[in-house]
TrEMBL record:
Gene Ontology cellular-component terms listed: cytoplasm; nucleus
Gene Ontology process terms (BP): cellular response to oxidative stress
Name this polypeptide is given: glutathione peroxidase
Catalytic activity: 1-chloro-2,4-dinitrobenzene + glutathione = 2,4-dinitrophenyl-S-glutathione + chloride + H(+); 2 glutathione + H2O2 = glutathione disulfide + 2 H2O
Superkingdom to which the source organism belongs: Eukaryota
Organism whose genome encodes this protein: Marasmius oreades (fairy-ring Marasmius)
Keyword Ribosomal protein: no
InterPro entries reported in the protein's UniProt record: Glutaredoxin, Glutaredoxin_euk/vir, Glutaredoxin_subgr, Thioredoxin-like_sf
Length: 121
C-alpha cells in the first residue's frame, strides 16, 4: 500500500517551470557583468540599452527580452519577488540589483555607473 506522502515528493510541471525560471534568472545574473531584463517594445529599455551600447560597448551584457522568451511572464514575476521591482528594464550589475532606466541614467550622470561596472577603475 502506498502512503499519501509519496505524492508530496512528486514534482509538478508548474514546479519544474518555476525552477527553470529561477535557474535562468540566477545564471543570467551570476554569469554576466550586466544582466538586463527587458521588453523589446519598451522605450525605457531602449534608452538604457542605448546608453550601455554607447558608453560601455566592450562590457559583457546579457539582454533577456521577456516578451520574446518562453516563460517571460514567470521570469518577470520571479524578478519582482526577488527585487521588489516589477517594471522593466530590470538591471543587475556584477550580481547587484541596480534598478531601471531612471536609476541607470542617474548613475551615469553622477559618474557612478562605471564604478559598478568596473569596481577597479
Amino acid at each position: 500500500m502506498q502512503s499519501s506522502s509519496a505524492s508530496s515528493s512528486y514534482t509538478t510541471h508548474y514546479q519544474l517551470r518555476l525552477m527553470a525560471v529561477k535557474d535562468l534568472a540566477e545564471s543570467t545574473i551570476n554569469d554576466n557583468t550586466i544582466a538586463f531584463f527587458s521588453k523589446s517594445w519598451c522605450p525605457y529599455c531602449k534608452a538604457a540599452k542605448a546608453l550601455f551600447k554607447e558608453k560601455y560597448p566592450d562590457t559583457q551584457i546579457k539582454i533577456v527580452e521577456l516578451d520574446e522568451t518562453e516563460g517571460g511572464d514567470d521570469l518577470q514575476s520571479y524578478l519582482a519577488d526577488k527585487t521588489g521591482q516589477r517594471s522593466v528594464p530590470n538591471v543587475f550589475i556584477n550580481k547587484k540589483h541596480v534598478g531601471g532606466n531612471d536609476k541607470i541614467q542617474a548613475l551615469q550622470k553622477q559618474g557612478e555607473l562605471i564604478k559598478l561596472i568596473n569596481p577597479k577603475a
